[in-house]
Specification:
The structure is a homodimer. With about 550 residues, chain A is an alpha/beta fold. In chain A, about 45% of the residues lie in helices and about 10% in strands. Chain A is built from 19 helices and eleven strands.
Chain lengths: ~550, ~550
Amino acid sequence: MTNQRIPKRAEATLETMRKVFTLPEGDGSTLARLEREISENLLGFLRNHFASGDIAPANLEVDFKTSTIPEDPVFVSEQVDYLLSKVVSQSVHTASPSFIGHMTSAMPYFMVPLAKIMIPLNQNVVKIETSKAFTPLERQVIGMLHRLIYGGSDAFYDQWTQSSQHSLGVFCSGGTIANITGLWVARNRLLGPRGDFPGVADEGLGPALRHYGYDGLAVLVSKRGHYSLSKAANLLGLGRKELIAVPLSSSHKIDTKALRRELDQLKKRRIAPIAIVGIAGTTETGNVNPLDELANIAQDYQTAFHVDAAWGGPTLFSERYKGLLKGIERADSVVIDAHKQLYVPIGAGMVLFKNVEALSAVEHHANYIIRPGSRDIGKHTLEGSRPGMAMLVHSALRIIGRRGYEILIDLGIGKAGQFAKMIKASPCFEVITEPELNLLTYRYVPESVKAALMTATPETQIAINDVLSALTESIQKTQRQRGKTFVSRTRLEAQAYASQTVSVFRVVLANPLTTRQILSDILEEQRQDGEKLYVEEGMKATIEEILKTAARK
Amino acid sequence: MTNQRIPKRAEATLETMRKVFTLPEGDGSTLARLEREISENLLGFLRNHFASGDIAPANLEVDFKTSTIPEDPVFVSEQVDYLLSKVVSQSVHTASPSFIGHMTSAMPYFMVPLAKIMIPLNQNVVKIETSKAFTPLERQVIGMLHRLIYGGSDAFYDQWTQSSQHSLGVFCSGGTIANITGLWVARNRLLGPRGDFPGVADEGLGPALRHYGYDGLAVLVSKRGHYSLSKAANLLGLGRKELIAVPLSSSHKIDTKALRRELDQLKKRRIAPIAIVGIAGTTETGNVNPLDELANIAQDYQTAFHVDAAWGGPTLFSERYKGLLKGIERADSVVIDAHKQLYVPIGAGMVLFKNVEALSAVEHHANYIIRPGSRDIGKHTLEGSRPGMAMLVHSALRIIGRRGYEILIDLGIGKAGQFAKMIKASPCFEVITEPELNLLTYRYVPESVKAALMTATPETQIAINDVLSALTESIQKTQRQRGKTFVSRTRLEAQAYASQTVSVFRVVLANPLTTRQILSDILEEQRQDGEKLYVEEGMKATIEEILKTAARK
């Protein structure tokens, strides 16, 4: 602290501030004890500190009502006790092998100490002046993922990976920003400078559409496209209605004939497609679009091809399954999330570009950093200040290695197949979407209803399915609130029922610690809840009524 | 791991994966040793592991050329050794009290162990199913900052802080996303649903402009606006040329008369302003716009008022200086960066909205999360998956407290004043912009040139200033490469020289550990470098030549 004169009453606070910035917590402190616990037994720490039992969200909120910042500093120990009892204990055990509902799963042990090194380094990768080695490190990681996807030559990567005026891709906080960046680049390249026209980046969308003679812009993707694409369409000024949701094929992929029809329609409306988006692992069902065919269509219609492989990208590590993504190497841009199947903590997404010049379409400069000619990565990113997450991705790629990821991918997909078999073997469940990668969806159908449903008229099926949807939702909520295990739920058009939209359980099997026994326990828990709720919530009576009415007709 | 059958040759890799996800590094490992070092002596760790001496960025890159992901897993210890020798040692000591060039500074000690708890919890705040208590916690932090800025009543915060259908603001990865979000909301509110027209979010910018009868959209900000605003203008489809850069007043703020003129001009061009942006702490000079006056103008012209207080927001903690930000409480939206003057690690920005309904203009939903009616915060954020940084901000706000932040703010501003005095007391420096908050800019001017510059004709001044700019740049680079101390540089229109653009040193005095002695040492280092480079790089000869020519005229 400087030796400025300060009022006497502030002296105590000043002393606290001095301590806070210079003195570590003592060895006997709660924080030190927690740190040791995490280092020695991460899984145990997570298990031990989660409160069991359910608190409804509304009741949880009671503890977080105060909106005043305390006038005087609170002791670190007091805050830590507060966090443990009110926050940590009431957080979600996302790493639990029984938590198979979302895309957050186990974390490799080494991540935690590495993050502990990364955090105090507090590098800001927007510019080399606050990141130095983290800048070429991030470029290297981008190069590694680019090579995984595009498989360029050694000479290509020698030339471009560290080229200060180019970027093979950019890091960002996650898949949403990555998708937006990909489409931003596509929009700006489609409506770029031409002749005297400086391009959409400078002139804006109105003048750019007029100059190019379009009435609007569109993005095409299957109905299973991630909601970030709709955000992108809104943000980039296309409008959400110009995110064209193409119907699915019978295999839950994209109906490519319908895609061509939509493209023809757009032409008639003088709407220019900025990109066709292929999905390599849909968020809801894990299906992979026929990327090679989409690349052909993009070529035929002279539009960009963007692939959202936020989830499925690491499938490329698997010799056995990488063929599913054939054609990805023809994409103009590809999104991949490191905090999903690269097993890095949340906050790390990437978008890679085939063309080394692509990102110049969104390049920007300032006077004090990212000056023209500088090596600063920030000139090509949508975000500004960014942390050194590349260090964690780099470590994961090396410590897990290609073969390690291959095993993790193969295990997950294998496990999804096993789980589908278990579901089919049970008399009271029904698979709604088969696993292609490591995701599948299913629902609970009381044994007594199954046969009736099969033979019912379409009209009766609709009525029964609506009740079953309510039942699935009820089971999912019950299970979530109990907090022992977790699956998520979504609503899908079920192909077995003339595309009626039904509610389903959705599972994601990426946690290597999830065993067959755990999967079996989850099903048993759902079966028991289902049996109970079906009667208790009056659904049994409703379905019997529906069947009776149907029989009378 | 499941008991699937796997090929024999993969067994070793499988065993490695099992270890990686279940076994901590031993107590004697390098990682464990580093962790202890960080816990016991953070500042020492940072000092010890940075290599001194300069490596040119191009030479640094040599270590990061490989773009292949290793086939087999690398040992954790091998990766840690690699990181220490190649990455950590060559990163930037942003927390050093001698690093006064950018907005990254010291980190409170407690941040590191708290981050170590946050990382393995790996909550994803996009939805309550993966964040539970972190959702109301984040809402609480947003409420705290909202109260700091807008000072609403207790009843207001009781009603809205935890209201699941509203958001008083959103967290994001940093100020850039926060500014973009603020302007996205402003654009969508200006061109919102009206009668049969569903609004710009659905219909896109072209139809929205036609419906509302505008030829384009604009954002107005002083010439010192952050470059993220230009990114926003590009992204949102306005076009960078419609980010209207309003001239500065004599006090490096915004010329409000010129602002009104620009607004009148826009009207004539049928361009609708989506927002006037006020800056509370410009990135380059730390000046605060007259926010109250800007609020009046926004009211007069019926446009939104957005304040970029990414840097200066925490000035509100100071009884002595908060008056500088008077009028901020009238803004429709305010950006504040927690990773700047709230002393949180990089990756935490926020934007707060006065109107509790504002964020509905960018609301979005999906089938599997952020469903209508859910409590999921993700329905209002530009990003998707996000980490639980709110836990760190919450802890900082409580452990530092209002008075703690006040001291930090007062110390920084006081220190900037002292530094300005030191510069003025030196015969060979010149202050270019006086500190208003804790930033100032200055340059080196050889003593022998000072007097001549004062009395020179405007033409001669221009010639001399260009040489001095090259000298300042050269000194800054030399100092940066030496790596002992760091100031940044930028180019500004110097008001003392008829607004000629000159290069300047830029310092940010937010690190409480920066002492008067350090500041004096930095000046002395620059003086010595300046004296030397002035002669060695032939600038002395050039200036003598300029003066000789001038004398001849």
